[in-house]
Amino acid sequence: MRSAPAAVAEVTPERFNLFDPNCPGRAVMEHIVSRWGVLVLGVLLRGTHRFGEIRAAVGGVSEKMLAQTLQALERDGMVLREVRPVIPPHVDYSLTDLGRPFAETITTLYTMIERAAPDVQAAQQAYDERKAAR
């Protein structure tokens, strides 16, 4: 006799707490705010791009890391991967409706970082000078 399938726990916003190491949202957060995730989302906010265009726009990312990042963001529903039936195959990446607000929020962070860069550099230099004087 077959047993009934296990009940799936209801998913509600109250069940998600990113400070809990077992929270399923933590992996999504890690994909979005990873070293490459934030940059990929920023590039895709500008529009649809092919793999090579994304790689060129995100300086320093390897093909392997970009492929892994895009795959994780696609799985999380942030990125849409569309294969065009042409020869050679043409693959486009774009933001989904779910991914767009995340990318827009991240661009706010970019702007803050760019504006604060001179102050951050001054703070780093002061820190390094204090550290060297010890």
Automatic annotation (TrEMBL):
Coiled coil: none annotated. GO terms for molecular function: DNA binding. The keyword Transcription regulation applies. Residues 23-121 form the HTH hxlR-type domain. Keywords: DNA-binding, Transcription, Transcription regulation. The keyword Secreted does not apply. PROSITE patterns: HTH_HXLR (PS51118). This is Transcriptional regulator. It comes from Actinokineospora bangkokensis.
